[in-house]
Amino acid sequence: MLDKSERDTLSEIERRVTAADPELAARMRSGQRRLAGTGNRTGLRIMVALLALLAGALMVLELPASAVAVAAVAAGMWRLRGCRIIHQEP
Q: Per-residue pLDDT tens for 31-58?
């Protein structure tokens, strides 16, 4: 986390960049919004799909209790996909 003087310095740099090249500043802002959560969701989808395949394989191997446990983990991950953990300083 940046201290107050570092945040002020960063804000001043951002103001200067915005004043010097507003188009670049707009592109940087839109790029940050676009890239915010793309990788995490793709990874989550892959993980849930792999867990679903594992649950199916466990059913074929006649291990229904394990299959249900794996399916429950996959469902929990899918259910919590929109949750965000925010770190707060004490």
A: 655 545 555 677 788 888 899 999 999 9
**Cα dist. 78→12, 21, 86 in Å?**
41, 41, 19
Residues 6+ positions from 64 with CB-CB distance below 8 Å:
58
| Residue 20 confidence class, pLDDT cut points 50, 70, 90 | confident
d(CA 9, CA 31): 22
DSSP one-letter string for the chain: ---HHHHHHHHHHHHHHHHH-HHHHHHHHHHHHHTSSHHHHHHHHHHHHHHHHHHHHHHHTT-HHHHHHHHHHHHHHHHTTT--------
Residue count (the chain): 90
Is the separation of the CB atoms in 44 and 77 below 8 Å? yes
